[in-house]
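Entry, Tuesday afternoon. Goal for today is a structural model of the target with flavin-adenine dinucleotide bound, before we commit to ordering more compound. Inputs were pasted exactly as handed over by J.K., no edits. I checked the ligand SMILES twice against the vendor sheet because last time a stereocentre got dropped in transcription.
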Amino acid sequence: MATAENKPQTSNQNSDVTAVVAKLSERFQDRCSTSKALREQHGHTTTWLKNQPPDAVVFAQSTEEVAEIVRLCAAHKVPIIPFGTGSSLEGHVNAPLGGVSIDLSRMNNILEVNPEDLDCRVEAGVTRKQLNSYIRDTGLFFPIDPGADASIGGMAATRASGTNAVRYGTMKDAVLGLTVVTPDGRIIRTGGRAKKSSAGYDLTRLYVGSEGTLGVITELTVRLHGQPEAISGGVCPFPDVTAACNAVIATIQMGIPVARIELLDSLQVRACNTYSKLDLAETPTLFLEFHGSDAGVREQSEMFSAIAEEYGGGPFQWATAAEERTKLWTARHDAYWAGKTLNPDAEIMVTDVCVPISRLAECVTLTAEDIQAEGFLAPIVGHVGDGNFHVQILVDLNDPEEVRKTEAFVERLSLRAIDMGGTCTGEHGVGQGKQKYLRREHGEALDVMRAVKQALDPDNVMNPGKILPQS
Ligand SMILES: Cc1cc2nc3c(=O)[nH]c(=O)nc-3n(C[C@H](O)[C@H](O)[C@H](O)COP(=O)(O)OP(=O)(O)OC[C@H]3O[C@@H](n4cnc5c(N)ncnc54)[C@H](O)[C@@H]3O)c2cc1C
């Protein structure tokens, strides 16, 4: 939803979009489109935020083509919005000032896989599922798994994570190096394949999480991991969310190397039962997975079971067969779509926060109480091993009072997380939706972020109106 806070910082009144689009059409022919449907599909489509389509969409096929498009747009100060699969949740791909969406989905080549070094180099449009199916026979896997089959470029741009992050880290840990087209059209390479480096500023980390506001990522070198020798997992019910979160805190504090530990509150379990044909008890539930040797996973799961019992949870129900585990984790990844079915007529407002693990139970409990007090239909689900959780509120957009109450709730939740030493977004990113909380979270560091943006993109052509609030 467009608010005063997410209006772009500068306006591109002088931009000559028409001339630029004409040149792009001539150069890229049917790979440049101004069709309304395609433009709308390249604006924000996932949540209740308003769709703001670009003026044109260009499907790039190489780094050089991206540089050519960027140089042309930059010369005319026309906004550029990089586009992966459009699965982001905070209005990231919207074009509030119009401009050109550069769709990277046709840059989907896997350029090299180096099993001996546990890394690979891919074009930005490769999706996480495509990469994993390509490398399956090498015995390696790429662990970062947002619920959507997002592009690796988009995942780097949003610093994404997922259910495996508690064990394998987020995109900040996965990305070793990048090829980037800068806002003035230069092609630069950051990082490399060495496991560590002390050579200069860490531009790779600067670009990871920059949401397309500092350049277009065209290639990435990412870290891979060996497929575990043994996997075990299952589900564990708890009497309430506080008990479930306390069990998570104890598990993490004891150093049990869980591969996945996810919370679904009772409403989310109900939604998943219906949507994914599960038959779980409708009570707060942890989904777990352990990776390691046979002996290792047995030991980890026994330690977890003892903790769960201490907090009134259990019995732990094992999913021993691989198909059973796949069914559970597919249901977890589909939690967002499942939540939507709770009221198909409502729009979805989804938000994520992250707190230090010791504050998890307190933050989730206060949030659950807040949801109850407001009478929202709003499941809670989360990558709780990282202290990260999501709330998906089903809202009637025709009811201004409900919209106001929802916005106020999201503000309370974001400030609660920040005040607990956490963040207003653990993985979804800022986009348009979370800009207003950055001053509270970062203080003067926000001005340093602005200085970086100003230095690299003085004309504000790269994805304007995202991340940095107006004041
Ligand atoms: C059902 C569902 C579940 C989800 N679950 C999770 C989850 O568990 N964890 C999580 O982290 N996220 C999750 N998300 C959010 C989303 O999948 C991630 O934000 C993802 O990283 C976005 O990737 P994308 O390819 O769709 O990027 P887009 O949505 O296309 O773009 C996102 C942002 O990155 C920029 N961008 C895209 N490609 C590039 C590029 N090549 N160079 C520079 N900038 C670029 C865009 O300009 C935009 O600002 C979920 C979304 C859905 C719909």
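The first helix runs from residue 17 to 28.
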